[in-house]
Prior knowledge:
Layout: E1 5-11, H1 21-28, E2 33-39, H2 41-44, H3 51-68, E3 75-79, H4 82-92, E4 94-101, H5 107-122, E5 126-130, H6 145-153, H7 178-185, H8 196-208, H9 214-217, H10 224-227, H11 232-236, H12 242-250, H13 259-281, H14 303-311, H15 317-329, H16 334-347, H17 356-362, H18 368-379, H19 392-399, H20 404-409, H21 418-421, H22 429-434, H23 450-464, H24 468-480
Helix pairs in contact: 4-5, 12-13, 13-18, 16-18
Bound molecules: flavin-adenine dinucleotide.
Amino acid sequence: MKKESINIVWLKRDIRSQDHEPLFYAEQSELPYIIIYLFEPTLIEYPDTSPRHLKFIYHSINALNKTLEPFNRTVNLFYGEAITIFKYLNEAYHIKSIFSFRESGIQLTWERDKKVHSFCKEHAVIWKESQRDGILRGIKNRDDWNKQWHRKMHTPILQNNYSTSKIGPLNHPFSLPIKLETELKTYPKQFQPAGELNAWRYLKSFADKRGSNYQKHISKPTESRLSCSRLSPYLAWGNISIKQAFQFVGTHPNGTKNDRAFSAMLTRLHWHCHFIQKFEVECSYETDCINKGYELLAHNKNEAFIKAWKTGTTGYPLIDACMRAVAQTGWINFRMRAMVVSFLTLNLDQDWRDGTYHLARQFLDYEPGIHYPQFQMQAGTTGVNTVRLYNPVKNSQEHAPEGLFIKKWIPELTNVPIAYIHEPWNMTMMEQTFCGVILGEDYPLPIVNLQESARMARDKIWGHKNHPAVQQEKNRILNTHVNQTT
Ligand SMILES: Cc1cc2nc3c(=O)[nH]c(=O)nc-3n(C[C@H](O)[C@H](O)[C@H](O)COP(=O)(O)OP(=O)(O)OC[C@H]3O[C@@H](n4cnc5c(N)ncnc54)[C@H](O)[C@@H]3O)c2cc1C
């Protein structure tokens, strides 16, 4: 029997119904199409992935299905490796084209995509990959990149219209394991709600109201939760495109009164793509020092330090509050992310690779192209950025002076007076007894001396900066133009 010819739209980090070129192309074609999302075991088991990411994806897809329901369209979920699924689909149908966005991911997804390309070649399937958010493939340098990015941001937003599908949901043998699907169905309230409508809700409330204090609050651990856009998970999983966000904020009537705040936010949308563009060219940033000269630096791996950092039990209240907050909610602001990385890699002198996957799993907005380069910038392994040591006590005093963020996330310290909340170790035993926390028992004493560890880190990282291997790499990096800093 002759197989039915179809097209496939393969959703990746683009779970939305509008400004979606692959879905647009599928609609333009005369052939029927199906929409698929693949839960790939190899990716799920990789250490950067956590159930919270999968939950966000699953609930984003449910939301998309509601939007597409009137058109008898649904996203078909598959549990299996991409090649296995495409082989299966190609046996059931004659696949003419696969439409997807291009993925600038880790080595693993790059390798997976290479296999899919070979499969397509072998079976005469056309795989049309659309450009994601101004990220270019195969560029030799970034000389013209900024201009091209801005040009792209000012092109019209694609309006997707949908025809009614004659193909209903597919019956296939690759459904999600019941245990996994049951887990994905529960969605903790503490996480930002998933899906396209929620992305727009967050964007609108930012531009209408919340964003007026954006710059004033951006570094404050509590206030930033309200005043930052909080668009990151929606951008990371593609519930909204960078262009949609850019044009909405850029043309919003509040732009005049919030000029500086909105400009700062728009700059960050540019950074978002700038970092992903660098990663697109060098996805080895996931595992190798950006400046290979820093591979020569030895670290004394200390499992107890790493565990204390991960569990928020270092004895430094702001560090611990951040690590516990991100574990519960999936989000902390930029400064707090930079500070916890600085603490792990500089004060605790641990290899940056001992923290990357942990934080990747914690961040609901995990985006490899931003995550690894940012992590390395804070760890001081790029060799081209100024290394910053974030003092957690100073940051606590300056950005959370009342101690409310600490008290929210570290109940052990609830009754500690403001005078001691940033440095509880200064309390006498009598004071500890009064406020119901004995240090070393109820809450840890600091695991390192702040001043001493900072001095040692400075000597080590700054001292290594002039090493010939670092200098040589620095020249190479600067000459390639692909690694410019922001
Ligand atoms: C160690 C470390 C790891 C990070 N990992 C991630 C990550 O996995 N995913 C991620 O989206 N961001 C990451 N960031 C960048 C930044 O902290 C978050 O984008 C930001 O806190 C998200 O909050 P928001 O959406 O309210 O941002 P806003 O301040 O409202 O900014 C709007 C958008 O701009 C982008 N953006 C903001 N700051 C940056 C930045 N410094 N670099 C690149 N893009 C930026 C994000 O897409 C963000 O959603 C990381 C930063 C550090 C220091």
